[in-house]
Amino acid sequence: MAPRIDIFAIVILLGVVQGILLGGLFLTGTRATSAANRTLGWIMWAYSAAIFEIFLCYTNYQFQTLWADNFAEPTNFLLAVLPYFFVYARLHGRLPKHWRGHLLPFGFWCLYSIFWQYQSYDYKYNSYITAWHPELSYRPFTYWIPEDPLYLRDHVNDLTLISILIYIGLSLREVYFSFKKNQLPFFTKQIVVPLTQVRNYVFLFCLFPMVFVGVKLSFQKDLGDYLLGSLVTFYIYATSYLTLSHSVLFQVENTVENRKKYEKSSLSEDSSEVILQKLQIYLQTQKPYLENDLTLPKLAQRLAVSQHHLSQVLNDRLGQSFFDLMAKCRIEEAQKLLTDGAHMHLKIDEIAEQVGYNSTSAFHTAFKRITGQTPAQYRAKFLNGEL
């Protein structure tokens, strides 16, 4: 049959290419030292394999590549396992214990697929047209070996859905207990990195089982799989967007100076990720920078980490010193007070004191350096509607 190229085919093929490139990005260089990044790289490659098979079937190129029929079927058992690994690694800085056990269904299906892959091309041709072109005639064929000795292949969609629901449940459980541990409501509107980001990621992935069920109930055989492929492609595009616009989600390259400074440090990348998450949550929930006597040793003690490791995380992961970070947080808080109607009666020196500055002149200097204007100018612009 003639190839069918339409908008779905183009979108899916571009998603394949994008997924391969993203997978390579997260699995190479210093980025690959982070468990979350490694997992994300494997997610992109698994997604690419799955939707490439859909692309071949949907466009009729499968007629020219019968040898590859169902080659990506084992990835059905990675579609939810790997996202669960990513959620766990983002929250804890490491993979879950006994993570290899979660991959046993994938490994089993890889071995079980051998029975399928050794079938004749005529058999694979019949299988393909049964799923995608039932109007065509079958070819005579001979079994080489049993293609489904355990009679499992007819239940692959059911097993896939069960796997997805189980691992979405496990992912939601991890996120819920992380919020609870930090004494935050699960549906808080406050942006707490990485908790709210990971929560929203899981919610986004919850679309998959709903679309999966809808497609399988609406279409016979695999005729609607291009819709599933389009959704997975959307996940790849969304990851690309986050990589470009929210790089704080992922490990960034260290500067040469910082690498030299901390080249003898015992801090691993996973431990660095954990410290960074604890710091961000503590800053957003407790606001310790409002204390005028806060120091790096005090902050490290409250986070239960070493002062040296905290300093390394600030320099390597945020590109800031402790004093730069405190100034940034305090000025952001001051901007809120300067534009809050309930605090318009406060004088500039009173605001400086409330955000942790003992000296009004130091507050003015920091505010001008960070915002490019004085506190009085900032408030005046707000009152004039210029902000």
Describe it.
The chain is mainly α and 387 residues long. It has two domains: 7-249, Rhopdopsin 7-helix transmembrane proteins (Up-down Bundle), CATH 1.20.1070; 256-383, Arc Repressor Mutant, subunit A. It has helices spanning 7-26, 35-59, 81-92, 104-117, 121-132, 156-181, 195-205, 207-218, 225-245, 256-261, 269-286, 296-303, 307-317, 322-338, 348-354, 360-371, 375-383. The longest helix has 26 residues, at 156-181. The relative contact order is 0.09. Residues 246-259 have low confidence and may be disordered.
Summarize the topology.
Blueprint: H1 7-26, H2 35-59, H3 81-92, H4 104-117, H5 121-132, H6 156-181, H7 195-205, H8 207-218, H9 225-245, H10 256-261, H11 269-286, H12 296-303, H13 307-317, H14 322-338, H15 348-354, H16 360-371, H17 375-383
Helix pairs in contact: 1-2, 1-9, 2-3, 2-9, 3-6, 3-7, 3-11, 6-7, 8-9, 11-13
End-to-end distance: 61 Å
Give the SSE string. Answer: HHHHHHHHHHHHHHHHH
What does the largest sheet look like? Answer: none
What is the structural class? mainly alpha
Overall form:
elongated
CATH class membership of the largest domain: Mainly Alpha
Low-confidence stretches: 246-259
Give me the CATH fold name of the largest domain.
Rhopdopsin 7-helix transmembrane proteins
